[in-house]
Specification:
Blueprint (H helix, E strand, L loop, with lengths): L15 H5 L52 E8 L2 E8 L4 H12 L6 E2 L2 E3 L3 E4 L37 E4 L12 E4 L5 H5 L6 E7 L1 H10 L10 E2 L1 E5 L2
Antiparallel strand pairs: 1-2, 1-10, 2-8, 3-9, 4-5, 5-7, 6-7, 6-8
Length: 237
Amino acid sequence: MTRRHPVPLVAAIGTALAILLGACTAVGGGGASAPASTATSATPSAAASSSTAAGPSGDCPTAQPAPLPAGETRTVTISTDLGDIAIDVDGKLSPIAAGNVVALASCGFYDGVVFHRVVPGFVIQGGDGENGRVPITDRSLLGTGGPGYTIKDEPVTSTYGRGVVAMARSSEPNSVGSQFFIVLDDKARDALASYNTYQIIGSVKSGMDVVDAIAAAADQEIPSSPVVMRHVTVANP
């Protein structure tokens, strides 16, 4: 299985940014990696979490769900032990990807799923509902899973930057599933834009301090005690 990455493993491109471009496991259906990426070797043996959380509470999609039409928005709120993150999901940015995340969040797919990868100054990433739900049974599989299907690619028409939320993918076409990442720093823009394939679905409207806290709490790229998405809800703005 391959991992989903927002960018490939890069040896160095400056200080922190070089690490940001590390083996980010990105979102997707079955686990994909960025173009020419190399899977990270950091696989802590410590248990991700001893706590449990509810899983899907409704009928989750088994194939690409309906797109979120242009002109429609939703507020997706991620509740964690460090606070809440509210995301404006906008159909005009990537209707298919936006509709996919809204559908998965609406059925409880993300409840109990961890932010399994943290690259300071670059991104935090989560959404592997197949392997990243607490309690985690096999940490070596973190970042390789998805919802059991993938969605179609869409053009990226917006700009990456701090607070932007986008879908992780592999180098294969149409490989996006359920994993997503939140950009931590505007300095990540050029690295992400050099691929320009990570479908942008929206941006954080409140809770960037929580996103920063998740990044600060990580002891390594694959945190030994990853922060859990306790509950993810969807509302009309």
